[in-house]
Amino acid sequence: MKQIIFSHRDYDKFLRIQKEPPFTARLLQVFLLQDADVTEWFREYDTKFYTDSRTDYYPLQSRLWIVLLLETEEGLLFTTLRSATTSKLQYYQDAQGESFEIRVNEHQNKSFRSRYND
């Protein structure tokens, strides 16, 4: 199965859908977005994660973005921004409708803050 790798386990978007990587999600749609068109709210949604001591944001550094719209097995939607290259765009466009394993880089922090269980 193809994979989408995230840098952190504690992304706010995962907490919102109450999912802890690894899990499976289907790629529903691929969009292209210019950096100037990424709103501050979407940027915050996509990059916000938690550490033991604070809230942090993954740095975004690209002029063109691929937006992946994904659906969990429970029907919950989430997105991720990926820097755009011609080969990445083709890869994701060809994979629309396929399931991906959502994983975290094993070298990153492995704690998961299950805030929804409180």
Give the count of helical stretches: 3
What is the ordering of alpha helices and beta strands?
A: EHEHEEEEHE
Major β-sheet annotation: 5 strands, mixed
E-strand count:
7
Estimate what percentage of residues fall within beta strands.
35-45%
Query: Which descriptor suits the 3D outline?
Result: globular
Q: Which structural traits does this protein have?
A:
alpha+beta, globular, disordered C terminus, single chain, 118 residues, 38% strand, 5-stranded mixed beta sheet
What does this structure look like?
The structure is a single chain. This protein has 118 residues and is an alpha+beta fold. The protein has one domain. 19% of the residues lie in helices and 38% in strands. The strands form two sheets. A five-stranded mixed β-sheet has the order 1-7-2-5-6. The longest helix has 9 residues. It starts with a strand and ends in a 14-residue tail after the last strand. The C terminus is likely disordered.
In short:
With 118 residues, this protein is of the alpha+beta class. It has helices spanning 12-16, 40-47, 86-94, and strands spanning 2-6, 23-34, 48-50, 55-57, 64-72, 77-83, 99-104.
